[in-house]
Amino acid sequence: AAESQGHISVVLLGATGDLAKKYLWQGLFQLYMDQVSSGHSFTFHGAALTALEAGQRLMFDVLKKLACPPDETPDRCAVLKDQFLKLSQYHQLKTAENYTVLNREIETLLRQEGLKEAGRIFYFSVPPFAYTEIARHINSSCRPPPGAWLRVVLEKPFGHDLESAQQLAAELTSFFREEEMYRVDHYLGKQAVAHILPFRDHNRQFLDPIWNRHHVERVYEHLTSSLSSGRTSFYEQYGVIRDVLQNHLTEALMFLIMELPANVSRAEEVLQGKLQAFQSLRGLEKNSAVLGQYQAYASQVQEELQKAQDYISTTPTFAGVLIHSDNLRWEGVPFLLTSGKALDERVGYVRVLFKNRAYCTQSETLRDAGHSQCKAKQIIFYIGHGALNTPAVLVSRNLFKPVMPEGSWREAVGQSDLRVFGQPLSDYYVYSPVKARDAYSVLISNIYHGRKDFFITTENLLASWAFWTPLLGSISHQPLRLYPGGVENQHLLDFEMVNGEVAFTVAEPVELLTNDYRTIQSKFRQSPLVSAWSEDLISHLASDIEKVACRTVAHAGQFHLALSGGSSPVVLFQRLARHHYAFPWRHTHIWLVDERCVPLTDTESNFFSLHNHLLQSVRVPYFNVHPMPVHLNQRLCVEEDRGTELYAKEITALVANASFDLVLLGVGTDGHTASLFPRSENGLEGAQTVVLTESPVKPHQRMSLSLPLINKARQVFVLVLGKGKHDITTLLSRVGHEPRKWPISGVSPSSGQLVWYVDYEALLG
Fold first, then answer.
1. Residue 80: which CATH number?
2. For residues 660 and 589, is the Cβ–Cβ distance under 8 A?
3. Please, what is the Cα angle at 444 between 441 and 448, to 5 degrees?
4. What is the DSSP string of 179-202?
5. Cα separation of 588 and 567, whole Å?
6. Taking every annotated instance into account, which residue ranges of this chain make up the domain Glucose-6-phosphate dehydrogenase C-terminal (predicted)?
7. Residue from 7, 248, 385, 726 carrying the catalytic annotation
8. How far, in Å, CA of 418 to CA of 425, rounded?
9. Residue 491 known to be catalytic
10. For 563-576, how does the pLDDT look when each residue is reduced to its tens digit (9 = 90+)?
11. How many domains would you assign to the chain?
12. For residue 66, what are the domain limits?
């Protein structure tokens, strides 16, 4: 902005609302004070739906209360404030005509003053449902002329889940270009959060060797409030995960785990690094989170939102979530994100705790305790409030003395009796900002300067929602732990990590008895049936597979497991990878039941899915993995290449009597299993053990084990998940042995056992 001198018009929509009153007008006044000598001229246009006279009165009541920073002289402050008020005016913006009139007024002012237009800032401090209509009006009648820039500033929430975020993004991109949109997450303006990347950059020499899984034990991100009331209407719609974790804490997490770009001042490099960090995150499951709700919340909702007495809120006001990144730098390091209302204190911090391998023989009193290698080693980005009550960066003295920019951060001097995470403040190098700045003042300055790396791009937004939405769906009906609030919470909300999951450490005071999650065991098609809610079912199935594997390896020395493709087994693969550390992978051979005729690196490939969700996470010897040979002689599934014969020979050579120890199958809505489809020409009968088949859906060509080979297995488990499978499940419960119509009905191991694993949705609809 400083390069192209001219006039800037700032339009604040929602100028009389709470956010504008508390932060935005003060931020705009700070911008004016900072830039009054920059060569730019300004006008500030407050706008709302309120009629002209009432709106003017409300807005100027706010402007009269604006404050200058402590280092500003009273005389200069009075002059600047007077100038700012003269440059500010109120508009009612309700109709298309109102926007046309505003545009005409801006153009007239520029013409009368002989000013060149540099650009326009439109700050949307309004609910998201109003975005599209306002965007349409700005685009059609209030854009600056060619040569001047447009910056549109958007406040969260940006959607409720991935689908709604995509819809809102699509609507906005029909009116504005990506470079014109500045989505605000005000935590990116918090001084400690904004300094994470610069800190990593300035201290590369110290951090490069230790900023990885070999040295970092765990990372905490914590943002809590002692308040229990306020924003009830908003909170009931969104809850703590959408309000805090999906945005504030996730953005801070990206700054921690992203690969450091060569130039942290280049917005494009930073944004690209964040997107790559998102791609490395492991998917969240229901047991990745613990949830709570403070006891008074339900009555607040009933009272403030006028809900019926029997209304039950399922909105979490507390959440603890365990996140893992599967890139090489962070593999295995737990990232714990915690936020909640009605806790014992208001505090925010990001805390990186390093592993400590030291053992100190001598008493701590006999040495320089601050530099003791036996004390905790940590770096803390202290966002604010809490014991310190100021933004700060703390580095353990037994790590290194950090490099900090002198003009903006200063080292705290003098001893204090404060303790931070159990250690005296003297154990840390402590730095605080030279000049404390409100987050919105920082962000408004960055908007003026066009610093896009402090804002959320569309790609960044959708990547975040894609990560969080599956968890939000899986916990929507999860019971919440009730807590009284404040110090009375005691240990109720403490949680721990167990086998890649999190769980509360102490039982609830009152145990609630429920039959919702019990496992049903009975018969289906004359074979054993196991049924439960899908997550419990997958857990049960994974345990059963492990038991079969351990038993078989103890008896025969090796375990031959044939796995199907498709979407249903993915959650099973993930469960096996993350929770079954006693599984005898070293003695397991992995075979494919079927494969699509695409290269193994294609995302449509069953092997690609198996590799992504299971094989890369477990220690199966390379030579024990047997993908189907669909890609031979640089072509796919050509009969002359004899891929089916090659696989059949490999099975015969390695699997005793060609009898797999366990075959896992699924069922299609048409009754197909493996890649054996109704009225298939191949594979339903005959001597051939591996066949080429045709699917009615793309990719059409498939390779599959035949029904006779499947029926030679010692155990066959069939997994059926979801409401979409209810009709075929009901049909299969009534039909007999008719593999030409329904290939799955032909599965009947000649000397083995068949077990059905069907979730409640598939079984009961």
1. 3.40.50.720
2. no
3. 135
4. GGEEEE-GGGGSHHHHTHHHHHHH
5. 23
6. 199-488
7. 248
8. 6
9. no
10. 998 888 999 999 99
11. 3
12. 7-155
